[in-house]
Design a protein that fits this description.
The protein is α/β, with parallel strands linked by helices and about 290 residues long. The protein is about 55% helix and about 15% strand.
């Protein structure tokens, strides 16, 4: 198949690289060509315009920063979907809200383009290692087309249901991810204030049944106060906003999510946006220190 990959940020670059390592003939596109240069060295083709990048594609993956980016890149008057072949398949792996996925599907359908939403569970490390989990929504025949490629980029492809159900499940997953990290940070700060050592807490809490498994991978970041980006805090804030928006669309107020969103928003506004979201601990601790 002719495959095109659009969006070469931290996640997209790693995902596209894994396709190339597995001998997939790949066209890539990014607004900033420099981000594509390492992939070109690996054998990818780069097209000067997004329309040229998709015009012969049977399968197009997008991995963009959110609904606004997908809207302008794919659905606008100059969006690439209009240049895709009739019957080709667009797979959006961006994190967007379910209503947006339904909108994207309807737009594509009018142009005789098939659509599936397939956001991922996992961050930079799993993306580089080909260990992502794809949460796919769409028709069974479309999932069978995309699966050979998602199984190169990830360890599992979950067909959650029809279009928008992959995105719906991603909302739930990231809501819990953000909440678990923030609760752990608050527990750490309380424990330290009560006289328990930081090392003791980091050695014991992540191994207890009350802690989510991913916290074991974050403990060293907290221990060393070194928050190299795996999943940027600004993106977690964006995802919480999308979850809150999804709740509003369904007329369900997400009280805990809205509290978490404000905490991450405050951290984002105080310079933590471009570091890993586990830095919510450092921000939370700084808040407590400023009140002492």
């Amino acid at each position: 198949m002719n495959v095109t990959f659009i969006g070469l940020g931290v996640m997209g670059h790693a995902m596209a690289a894994n396709l190339l390592k597995n001998k997939v003939d790949l066209i890539v596109f990014n607004r900033t060509k420099e981000k594509a240069d390492p992939l070109i060295e690996m054998g990818a083709q780069f097209k000067p315009t997004i329309h040229e990048a998709v015009e012969k594609a049977d399968l197009v993956f997008t991995m963009l920063t959110g609904p606004e980016a997908v809207e302008s890149t794919a659905l606008s008057d100059d969006g690439f979907v209009q240049s895709m072949k009739p019957g080709s398949l667009w797979v959006d792996s961006s994190t967007v809200n379910p209503e947006f996925s339904r909108k994207a599907s309807e737009h594509a359908m009018k142009l005789d383009v098939r659509f599936a939403d397939a956001p991922v569970a996992g961050s930079k490390g799993p993306a580089e290692q080909g260990q992502l989990v794809f949460l796919a929504g769409g028709e069974e025949q479309d999932i069978s087309v995309l699966s050979p490629y998602t199984e190169i980029m990830g360890k599992k492809t979950m067909h959650v249901g029809p279009v928008s159900h992959g995105t719906s499940f991603k909302m739930v997953v990231n809501l819990m991810l953000a909440s678990n990290m923030a609760t752990f940070a608050e527990g750490m700060v309380l424990g330290e204030q009560l006289g328990l050592s930081k090392d003791f807490l980091l050695d014991t809490l992540p191994n207890m049944p009350v802690s989510a498994p991913f916290l074991k991978m974050k403990a060293d970041k907290l221990r060393d106060n070194h928050y190299e980006e795996e999943f940027a805090l600004k993106n977690m804030y964006k995802d919480l906003h999308l979850a809150s928006l999804s709740g509003n669309e369904e007329e369900k107020e997400l009280k805990i999510t809205n509290v978490m969103k404000e905490l991450y928003a405050e951290a984002n506004g105080n310079g933590y946006g471009n570091v890993d979201f586990s830095a919510i601990y450092d921000f939370y601790k700084s808040l407590h220190s400023s009140k002492s």
